[in-house]
Known about the structure:
The chain is mainly alpha-helical. The protein has helices at about 1-25, 25-35, 40-55, 70-75, 80-105, 115-125, 125-135, 140-155, 160-170, 180-185, 190-210, 210-230, 245-250, 260-285, 290-300, 305, 320-330, 340-350, 350-355, 360-365, 370-385, 390-405.
Amino acid sequence: xxxxxxxxxxxxxxxxxxxxxxxxxxxxxxxxxxxxxxxxxxxxxxxxxxxxxxxxxxxxxxxxxxxxxxxxxxxxxxxxxxxxxxxxxxxxxxxxxxxxxxxxxxxxxxxxxxxxxxxxxxxxxxxxxxxxxxxxxxxxxxxxxxxxxxxxxxxxxxxxxxxxxxxxxxxxxxxxxxxxxxxxxxxxxxxxxxxxxxxxxxxxxxxxxxxxxxxxxxxxxxxxxxxxxxxxxxxxxxxxxxxxxxxxxxxxxxxxxxxxxxxxxxxxxxxxxxxxxxxxxxxxxxxxxxxxxxxxxxxxxxxxxxxxxxxxxxxxxxxxxxxxxxxxxxxxxxxxxxxxxxxxxxxxxxxxxxxxxxxxxxxxxxxxxxxxxxxxxxxxxxxxxxxxxxxxxxxxxxxxxxxxxxxxxxxxxxxxxxxxx
Length: 421
């Protein structure tokens, strides 16, 4: 145990020393990772001001697109000066990274220490994780809540799992898509619990302190501002660091300033998303090992195709997905081409690869993280399609529908689909 802990500490220290050697100081790190010359720019620009003014004026500040309960969380920093708040938010960021590592290292591959070391290395050197830290973003908290919910659900702890999934969705609403899996498997209890916690945290709790009308107005305000910001109206496209699949593809073909390419590429992205949804449906209907994990990672890997406001920090799930595929591939006899593809995904998402470029813009322009994610999707399809039966999958849903029809919808609790984890 002491030797293993020493290896873990040594690896973490080696990565930290490489960062210190390459960047020299925090200021250089901040400038060379992305735009904005200050550490935790999203915190100082949006989160801290929102928390500071919430109780006096419960209206979202420009750039704050999260629910009122998240604004209440940031109001905990209103008693601190800006400089002190930056320090304490830095502590939160470090703790989130540690928890992200600990949760997945503890339960993913308990018996394989080399894979646990691999995950530690992947997480500490992943560009999305470093990008999240630079901006002081909350994506790592969202993904942490998703992965923790997955593990708690598999362990039979549905109440805390539903709480965490609802909590993550109140930061950034896209985690609501994970409910699709539980809808397919017929776990009505879990859906009800998620709905309960979403309403409790998202409406009831803010209404107690802000009032119901200001809470509802807060939601409408963030919907209006987010719609105006991310609708691509009047041909206004995000910067070169956007990882939204259509925009990355437009940059790749040199058509970034040509909005006419946007809709066709969005259709391509929606088709990929539809294929992922179909694959998730087949996974849910199967007896496949780790089907909940497959479904969750397929949903996470779908974000570049439907989240238009996608930046590097959204993809902090990449190390966990890479480790999961490494675990699956390790037991596969036909691995000759899979390891190189997995290695390519790791390289493209690595900080060390980014360090080979003269400036962060040169790395960001080509959307390497989107392609890293796409490689993982290809590997997932290669692993899943030979193991899934279309006939059995559609037959499973056909039988469930016939059962519902036969029993009638007057007794929905008695006619539930058999919940599957």
